[in-house]
Amino acid sequence: MPRDGFHRTLAACPSLTNLHLRGFIELNSQTPISPIALPTLRELVVHGRVLANGLRLFDLISAPNIETLILEDVKAPALASVHKFIARSYPNAFQSLRALRYVGCEFGPDMDVHLLRATPAVSELVLSVDKNLHLVRLLVNSDKQAAMCGCPPMWPNLRTVTLHTQGYAGHVVGGAGVPVNEPSSTMALLQEFITCRNALGKPISMLQFKGPNAGPFSSEFRWGLAQGKQFVPTQTICCQMSAILADCGYKCDWAAMVEAYSNQLRQFLTQVSVVRHQIAPVLPPNFNIQHLRRRIGVPT
User: Fold this and answer.
1) How far apart are alpha carbons 47 and 245 in whole angstroms?
2) Residue 158 CB neighbours (<10 A)
3) Cβ(113)–Cβ(154) below 8 Å
4) Contact, 274 vs 262, CB < 8 A?
5) How many Cβ atoms are within 10 Å of 220's Cβ, its own excluded?
6) Where on the tree of life does the source sit, at the highest rank (predicted)?
7) What is the rounded distance in angstroms from the CA atom of residue 163 to the CA atom of residue 191?
8) Whole-angstrom Cα distance, residue 181 to residue 131?
9) What is the DSSP string of the chain?
């Protein structure tokens, strides 16, 4: 849909309460247009493909009373742009934002504490686990500052945290979740976050793990937390795609399942392409992957 058409469509629906954006919006014109006021909008879902061409969504809509914001597969530059807009909007918007869900999003290292200040009512957070967890690191650093100053932490109402664990390739664990080697930096950071929240008197009331590897992830996490004599209520949901779809705002039907698995396949093929380009310079000119597969006994 072209940007102008999208603008006209929203202008005809000023009383929207839920808006799910998962298609492409073409930037057919760079001419500035006034944002459409959507004062009753409560839930906004944005897929990364909406922002992939540089579209600045909040230049098109004004939704100051959003309660649930779901961002799915948003790349780091687009996500940084969204965060900067939220920070600039303080205190005129996003004060009612309670549920903030990042599903498959890429975070850059330039996380800013102003994002936390601009969204003080957040009580539910959903994150996909990666090796950096920049947002959790930002929360930990903010909590440490709060402890030093003797003041409440940012996001004081945060009570429920859900972690999608399918992207985590952790350390090998033995019985009862005991890591064979040192605990991973990801686990150490999550455990530090729980410790900080407990120390500040703002404990997390429920930490959920979702994904096909949620069981081992949970065991490794709880073992490390117990070593520090800390506690947090946890729930482990060893699931495939259907439970994760609910966090994305999907109605769980066959079409949603097909789209979700298609997204996963596209991400996998992209990763394969990147690996091929990385190893291409060191491969001999006559290298043939099929010959290699036959030599090591892999079915072709």
Assistant:
1) 13
2) 22
3) yes
4) no
5) 23
6) Eukaryota
7) 13
8) 17
9) -BHHHHHHHHHT-TT-SEEEE-S--B-------PPEE-TT--EEEEEHHHHTT---GGGTEE-TT-SEEEEES--HHHHHHHHHHHHHHTTTSSTT--EEEEES----S---HHHHHH-TT--EEEEE--S--HHHHHHHHHHHHHHHHT-PPSSTT--EEEEE-TT-----B-GGG-BSSSPPHHHHHHHHHHHHHHHTT---SEEEEESTTHHHHHHHHHHHHHHTT----EEEE---HHHHHHHTT---SHHHHHHHHHHHHHHHHHHHHHHHHHHGGGS-TT--HHHHHHHTT---
pTM of the complete model beyond 0.70: yes
What CA–CA distance (Å, rounded) separates 65 from 70?
Answer: 14
284 prior amide bond cis, ω within 30: no
Give me the architecture of the 3-255 domain, per CATH: Alpha-Beta Horseshoe (3.80)
Q: Write out the two tokens for 135.
A: 């947002």
CA separation for the pair 90, 39 (Å, rounded): 16
Residue 21's beta-bridge partner residues? 46
What pLDDT tens digit does each residue of the chain (300 aa) get? 778 888 888 889 889 999 999 887 776 666 778 889 999 999 999 999 888 888 888 888 999 999 999 999 999 999 999 999 999 999 999 999 999 999 989 999 888 899 999 999 999 999 999 878 999 999 999 999 999 999 999 999 999 999 998 878 765 455 555 555 566 888 999 999 999 999 999 999 999 999 888 888 898 899 889 888 999 999 998 866 666 777 877 666 656 566 666 766 766 677 677 777 777 777 777 777 677 667 666 665
| Domain residue limits, the chain | 3-255, 256-299
